[in-house]
Amino acid sequence: MNALKLLWIDLETTGTDPYKNGICQMSGILDFNGEEIDRFNYNICPFPECEYTAEALKVNRLTEDQIRTFQPESEVFIQLNDKLKSHIQAYSKTDRYFIAGYNISFDKEFLFKFFNDRNKGILQFLVWGNPIDVMTLASQRLILDRPNLKNFQLTTVAKYMGIEVDESRLHDAMYDIELTRQLYYLILKREFRQDEAKFNLIQSLQTAQVNPVKEETAKRIIKYIDDVLDFGKYRNRTIAEVLSKDPQYIIWIDKNVARLTIEQSIIDKAQDAIDLQNINKKPNHIQYNNDTYLDDQIDSNPGLMSEGYDYTF
């Protein structure tokens, strides 16, 4: 199976019309199966007839004079074209990039105009025609939460999903695309986890119907975050406190303590907290460390385990 090859890209422009305005910054990350293999960041001097809008200059915190000192777009085209072709079988019908970004239709239109002005049609041999728009994915993920968001801009959505945002770096194309990529993998990870949970639930129900199990001892059900644990190193602590301090503990007791049943909503909260911790530490990599859990005993899975993301479709 071919690798999933993503061309993450974000542009800063001198306006919103690709036929009148130009690109002044182009940043991107080449991502194969969740792993960054290359990146680029070009400050660009657009074509001579380019028009500059006051609003765009304010957002980009640049002046026309500054932009005119940047690298000519004709040089950037050659460098970017060579870079893109170096990581795939150029002009292949099966080996191409998916363009990916946030509200990607805007960037895609400028990008195709940028390429077509120099070599008409070349980009269509390097990328698939259907881009990946993280804004659309986030819209589906947050469909019930939309009334709680003041807008649906990248930074607003990222913060709402729990991602830490560096305000000082906003409207820098490279930072915007890093943030977009981080948001994409967070959404994917949560969606995949939900699908897995649904599958496991269906499997358990089917098994129960075929081989019903008689419980001789009633299980305690933990439903709420203000429920209190009555054992282990977090004895007399609420679930909310444990989620804040050690969310991995919730996952561990769910898998290892037979007399407890934890509501799926609490497990989801614990896993969300773990996801954010790992994304902030090192994207695309999860670590489980040794820990002492019940009654000061070492957990049943000592050592360091790691699993890399694999989003091969």
From TrEMBL:
<keyword id="KW-0808">Transferase</keyword>
<keyword id="KW-0378">Hydrolase</keyword>
<protein>
    <submittedName>
        <fullName>DNA polymerase III subunit epsilon</fullName>
        <ecNumber>2.7.7.7</ecNumber>
    </submittedName>
</protein>
<dbReference type="GO" id="GO:0003676">
    <property type="term" value="F:nucleic acid binding"/>
</dbReference>
<dbReference type="GO" id="GO:0008408">
    <property type="term" value="F:3'-5' exonuclease activity"/>
</dbReference>
<dbReference type="InterPro" id="IPR046768">
    <property type="entry name" value="ExoX-like_C"/>
</dbReference>
<dbReference type="InterPro" id="IPR036397">
    <property type="entry name" value="RNaseH_sf"/>
</dbReference>
<dbReference type="Pfam" id="PF00929">
    <property type="entry name" value="RNase_T"/>
</dbReference>
<dbReference type="Pfam" id="PF20600">
    <property type="entry name" value="ExoX-like_C"/>
</dbReference>
<dbReference type="InterPro" id="IPR012337">
    <property type="entry name" value="RNaseH-like_sf"/>
</dbReference>
<dbReference type="InterPro" id="IPR013520">
    <property type="entry name" value="Ribonucl_H"/>
</dbReference>
<keyword id="KW-0540">Nuclease</keyword>
<dbReference type="GO" id="GO:0003887">
    <property type="term" value="F:DNA-directed DNA polymerase activity"/>
</dbReference>
<keyword id="KW-0548">Nucleotidyltransferase</keyword>
<feature type="domain" description="Exonuclease">
    <location>
        <begin position="5"/>
        <end position="193"/>
    </location>
</feature>
<keyword id="KW-0269">Exonuclease</keyword>
